[in-house]
Amino acid sequence: MPTQNVTQNVSQNPMQNVIAAEPDALTGYRSFRLGAFHFSRDAYFATVRWHAKDRERSHTLPVDAFLRAIMRDVAWGFFYGWVNFDEVLGTRNHYGRVDLYAGAYNEAMKQSGIDHTEQFDTAVIMATFKAVLKDWVNEGFDPFAAPAETGSAFGFKHGDNIEAIERTRVATKRMPGIAGDSPLRNDYPVNRHFTDVSQDEPQIHAEPGFEGELHAFNLFKYLSRSDVTWNPSVTSVCKDSLFCPTTEEYILPIFHGNDRVEWFIQLSDEITWEIADKSTGAPRARVTMKAGDVAAMPADIRHKGYSTKRSMLLVWENETAGLPQRYERGELKPYPVEF
Amino acid sequence: MYQTQFGSLERFQKGGIEIIQGGAKEYAFSNLFEVASRARPYDKTVVAKNLQYVVEALRAEGDSPWFTAAHDEFAVLMDGEVEAHFIKLSNPQALAPATSEGSIELEGTPSGKKMGYVRLQRGHQVLLPQGAAYQFRAVHRGVLILQTVLGAHSIQKWQEICYR
Questions:
Q1: How much is the ipTM here?
Q2: 3-class SS at A135?
Q3: How far apart, in whole angstroms, are the C-alpha atoms of residue B83 and residue A15?
Q4: pLDDT, tens only, B47-105
Q5: Whether residues A142 and A228 fall in one domain
Q6: A325 CA to chain B: closest CA distance, Å?
Q7: Partner residue opposite B116 with nearest CB, options A198, A210, A309
Q8: How far is B51 from chain A (nearest CA, A)?
């Protein structure tokens, strides 16, 4: 199915481009339209509809999984590459424009020609996704939190949780804690899974005249106080090389498809990764990482992680401009090293 | 109460790969404690590489040589107790030209003013700033990871450290 390139008029206020119905008389939720896609939810499920081969097509997923996925997409600014909500629905970031697709990376749906993709200005799709979150996240449910730490996503509409859905990925210019840079997390409580993590800070002994020139902080303390899961924050910047550690519990709510190589360094505990082909979703491997393990995620895969005990994971990204295009052209191999 | 599992030179468990299609090499899977335990002190073994950027694993034991770089680098201590000492170089460009990449090992102690030191324990991250030289001194041996760029002193031995 060819990709439709849709340009909606983007007004100064992107929220004006959001097409929402009146709240449903029974459930209280609005439905939303974005291009040819229609999104609705009920007490348990989110359903997306589109047209292909002259018929309406639809896909349904549990609404808690949908909200956790769309939350990451919004907070990460559509991230690097593909954010698969599940095996059917997802987005692809073109950095300024974003594809929304259903079935385009599902081998059976693609072959049957019932997939559909539309491309939107980032501001347009972002505005709609934020409006969905605002309307569909109920009071007491935090889509960033581990399931054991939050209330239910289910039921008819009751209140909202604006504070929880307005978190974004922490941007750091050099290192947290340096004057003018992102803050440390001293005001946050230590997570229940990390009460045994040392909270001591490094001792800095600066010679006279060099006060404020030596910088260090307790990264593990910083991570132990993260109030979100599966949400990398930048903690060091070496040119275009970014350390983006995060804390992980339960399941990565999306299947992340790589548009470049990324690396994982397991700082604590254990995560198991399900690896699949980026284009078809065919399973390729299960990778179990324990503390100190280092593994590459090649540029031609999608991955989803599972972490029973909350763990610390260092995600390492290369933000060099033009990388996705170089991989797409075959100029770079999908694997980072050959041996 | 939950117990957080960290690795160390003395105690680490390596995970694994169950291949369905393809090969294990595609994931360049290693364990930084295992790598450091088999390396000489302060060997800069590359454990992750993304084009010119690298993460190196270093066994901290005794004193390291002095290093500098034309760009910021960062170290995280994964195990042990280590001091990072700093000297503000009197002529940094002479030792690390602006176009150079990666850390550069210096002969002896470089000239410049002592800036002080930082004492690191497990999980602590330190900035190794451009324009300064640094030396690691292990109080208790351990393992550092270094975020830097591939340089003349980086050691690549993927065949030895990765699952195949």
A1: 0.98
A2: helix
A3: 52
A4: 999 999 999 999 999 999 999 999 999 999 999 999 999 999 999 999 999 999 999 99
A5: no
A6: 15
A7: A210
A8: 7
Distance from CA of A111 to the nearest CA of B (A): 21
Using a CB-CB cut-off of 8 Å, the residues of chain B touching A175 are 74, 125, 127
Q: Hey, how many other C-beta atoms are within 10 angstroms of the C-beta on B130?
A: 15
Please spell the DSSP secondary structure of B42-65, one letter per residue. Answer: T-EEEEEEETTEEEEEEEE-SBPP
Domain with B120 in it: what CATH number? 2.60.120.10
Q: Does B45 touch chain A (CB under 8 A)?
A: no
Q: Say whether both A152 and A17 belong to one domain.
A: yes
Range of the domain at B141: 24-161
CB B35 within 8 A of CB B43: no
A162 token code pair: 């604006």
- B-proximal residues of A, 202-261, CB under 8 Å: 202-207, 209-210, 213-221, 235-241, 243, 260-261
**Which residue shows structure tokens 């289910």?**
A154
Please give the model's pTM, rounded to 2 decimal places. Answer: 0.93
Paired tokens of B45: 């073994």
Could you give the CA distance from residue A317 to residue A314 in angstroms, rounded to a whole number? 10
* B54 touches B35 (CB < 8 A): no
Domain contains A184: no
Given CB atoms, is A295 within the 8 Å cutoff of chain B?
Answer: yes
- CA B54 centroid distance within chain: 10
Query: Residue A228 belongs to a domain with what CATH number?
Result: 2.60.120.10
